[in-house]
Amino acid sequence: GTTLRLYQLKIAINQGYKTIAEYQKALAEERRKKPEYMLFSALLGRHLVDNNITKVELARRLNISSKSLKRYLAGESIPIEHHQREIFDKLGEPFESIDDMVDGLLN
């Protein structure tokens, strides 16, 4: 509620931003640069193309909201490991946590 919004605004201002939205946009941009976010986004994007399905259909198959899928595809968010496992299973991909995938690429 109100207390959370005030707390978020305080953090945003302390970080040099004028609004919560400005701060959240900057955080999303930083996340997009992280390898784990890029890998998960690429995995989902590849599945869309390879299977010639819409984003709405993919969200339905994965049992996630269209908003979550949009954020995953944009590289703004990744699910927690438990949900990663479910998504990989539904995509027919062998499960390897996003962190393990990144480690494999970097080593």
Question: What's the SSE blueprint?
Answer:
Blueprint: H1 2-14, H2 20-32, H3 35-51, H4 55-62, H5 66-73, H6 81-91, H7 98-106
Helix pairs in contact: 1-2, 3-7, 4-5
> How many DSSP-defined strands?
0
- Oligomeric category: single chain
Q: What is the succession of H and E elements?
A: HHHHHHH
Shape descriptor reads globular
Largest sheet: none
Approximate strand percentage: under 5%
- Helical content, roughly? over 70%
Mean pLDDT: 87
The parts where pLDDT drops under 50 for at least 5 residues are none
Determine the N-to-C terminus distance: 44 Å
Specify Rg, calculated over alpha carbons.
16 Å
Enumerate how many helices there are, as a single number: 7
Which structural class is indicated by helix and strand composition?
Answer: mainly alpha
Architecture overview:
- The structure is a single chain.
- The longest helix has 17 residues, at 35-51.
- This protein has 7 helices and no strands.
- It is mostly helical and 107 residues long.
- The mean pLDDT is 87.
- Helix 1 (2-14) crosses helix 2 (20-32) and helix 4 packs across helix 5.
In short:
The chain is mainly α. It is 74% helix and 0% strand. It is built from seven helices and no strands.
